[in-house]
Amino acid sequence: MATHDSDLSQMNPFRELTKTFEQFKMPGMDMSAFAEARRHDVEAMVAANQSAFEALQALARTQTEMLTQTMQAMQSSAQSMMSGGASGGGDAAEHTEAAQKAWNKMLGDMKDLADSVRKAQSEAMVGMGERAAKGMKDMQALTRTK
C-alpha cells in the first residue's frame, strides 16, 4: 500500500505547481504559500462538486422512485377500473380522480425535492464564497511586505 501512496503523491499536480511558482521570485510574496492556498481552493471546489453530484444522484433516484410508484398506482387503478370493479372498484370518475391525486402528489413531492436542491446549491455557493473571501485574505497576507 505504501507504493500506492507514493504513486499518488507523485501524481499530485500541486507538487509541480509549487516548484514552478518557486522559480518565480516576487518581492514580498511566498510563492510556496501561494501555491498551497490555491491547492486549498481547488480542494474546496472538488468537495463542493462532489457534494452537488451526490445530491443530484440522490435526487434522480428519488424522482425515479416517485414516478415509478405513481405510475404503478395509476396502472393499478386503471386495471381495477377495467376489471369491472369486481372488488367494488367504483366508477371511472373515482379512478380518474385517484390517478389525478397521485400525479399531483408526485409533482408536489418533486417540487419539494427541487426546493431542497436549490437550498443545497445556495449553501454550497455560500461555502464557495467564504472560501473565496479566505483566499483573498490569504493573498493579501502573502503580498504584505515583511
Order of helices and strands: HHHH
Give the N-terminus to C-terminus distance in angstroms. Answer: 43 Å
The portion of residues assigned to helices is over 70%
Average of pLDDT? 75
Number of domains: 1
* Structural class based on helices, strands and sheet pairing: mainly alpha
Which band does the percent of strand residues land in? under 5%
Question: If you had to describe this structure to a student in words, what would you say it looks like?
Answer:
With 146 residues, this protein is mainly alpha-helical. It has one domain. Helices cover 85% and strands 0% of the residues. The protein has 4 helices and no strands. Helix 2 packs antiparallel against helix 3 and helix 3 runs antiparallel to helix 4. It is rod-shaped, with a radius of gyration of 28 Å. The N terminus is likely disordered.
Give keywords.
146 residues, mainly alpha, disordered N terminus
Write the layout of secondary structure elements.
Layout: H1 2-10, H2 13-23, H3 31-82, H4 92-143
In short:
With 146 residues, this protein is mostly helical. It has one domain. It has 4 helices and no strands.
